Amino acid sequence: TKGAKGGNPDPVQTEAFKSQIKPSAADVDEPLAKKPLAVKLPVSHDAIVRAMDNKQAFVRAAVREKLERDGSAILSMNILHELIENSVNRFVEKAHSFVQDSA
After folding, report:
1. Distance separating alpha carbons of residues 25 and 62, to the nearest angstrom
2. 9, 2 contact by CB (below 8 A)
3. N-terminal to C-terminal alpha carbon distance within the chain
4. Residues 32, 63 contacting (CB under 8 angstroms)
5. Which one of 7, 9, 52, 75 is separated from 94 by 20 to 30 angstroms, measured CA to CA?
6. Distances in Å between the alpha carbon of 3 and those of 11, 65, 67?
7. Are 65 and 72 in contact (CB under 8 A)?
């Protein structure tokens, strides 16, 4: 059976429908949170942001810049964690290779 029970048994994505599908976030290099974050802005800021073509990328960049400026400790901890994890993974790979070569 196709589709949801009681739904359209032969759903078709029209060109009009496809044109409304937003592209994935090309401005990020990691998975996006499943739940969006919503904030209210002052009226003057809201008007400016809503007029932008790519408002989501702008807001993500603004948050990232603010975190880098004010939350450097948080970002530093994340970077440190990533460096340690990468180093451990490389060490394990080299140790595994050494054991394989010695056998």
Report:
1. 15
2. yes
3. 54
4. no
5. 75
6. 7, 43, 43
7. no
Token pair in block for residue 89: 């993974």
User: Residue 87 CA to chain centroid, in angstroms?
Assistant: 24
Inter-CA distances, 76 with 66, 89, 97, Å: 14, 20, 31
Q: Provide the token pair at 76.
A: 């530093």
The pLDDT tens digits of the residues spanning 14-72 come to 888 888 776 667 778 788 888 989 999 999 999 999 999 989 999 999 988 888 787 66
d(C-alpha 68, C-alpha 62), whole Å: 10
Q: Could you tell me how many residues make up the chain? A: 103
Paired tokens of 28: 């990020």
Please report, as a single letter, which amino acid is at residue 8.
Answer: N
